[in-house]
Amino acid sequence: MEKTSTISEMSPAELAKCRENLRHQWENRKVDEELLQRAWQTAHHLATVLYQDYGASKVAVFGSLTTPECFTENSDIDIVVWGISYDRCLDALWGTEGLSTEFKIDIIDTESINRLFRQRILDQAIPIDLNETEIHKIIEKKYTSTDTEIGENYEVNRDQLVKRLSDELKKIKITVNRIERALEKIDEFPSDAREFMERAISADLAEVYTGFEKIFERIANEVDKHLPSGDSWHSDLLTQMADVRSGRPPIISNDVFLRLIELLRFRHKVNNIYGDELIYEKVEQHAKEISQLFEDVSKELDAFTTFLSET
Known about the structure:
- The chain is α+β, with helices and mostly antiparallel strands.
- 65% of the residues lie in helices and 6% in strands.
- It has helices at 12-27, 33-54, 86-95, 115-124, 132-144, 150-185, 191-224, 233-242, 254-272, 280-310; strands at 58-62, 76-82, 104-109, 126-127.
- The protein has a four-stranded mixed sheet, with helices on both faces.
- Strand 2 (76-82), helix 3 (86-95) and strand 3 (104-109) form a beta-alpha-beta unit.
């Protein structure tokens, strides 16, 4: 991969050009009304299934679908439910898999939401216990309640993106801390119990990468307006984050890119081979390096959010 400059290495003129391009992208984005309507129809259908077949007491939409100007063809439909357990949510996710071929659907229950993020989700949630006309009235009110000036719409979108990136990093930090505690204790475990701890660390390492990937997906969707597709999309997304785009500098440095590629390969092994085929030395290597990697990714994302704030 061709070496590119990070934000800290770019000249003031280069940064100014990126800021201007990004501002232009934000100011000229348009809401795809037809796409939005199809997404809400899918959410409404899903809610009906959750009420009738799974016994949900309340269903609501949160995330990008509640902010029309942020919703794109690559966005998910995020659903939060009341009255259904975590396991029942997984059943519902499997049971509704064929409901839409256009949108990816995520379902979570209120009890499994981390307390830190519950209130933010509930603040933006739009309940689907209404008829479609009432839903569209809520959306219209939510969309037009901001100043209609282009600059104000950009301000809202930018601030929301920065908050969501920060939220994801906080979630990842919780998992990184858990890995650190496991490393401190693993040598105290008897040999027949150590295997279970090793597998747990492996799963947490995979979860850390998934968290990073969610952040990069959000940037790809909301800033680049392009999410890679195809069999190699996971690695292509990392390449995209390390490249200069018309509206932004690189998100990650080449060094972080290479380390994340290694973690991506490790996650692929965790997700696709049997646990006893994992070599713990490799697990331990990633586990010992994960705190530093998290710190480095965080610093580079902080530089990017500072760039956004100054744009």
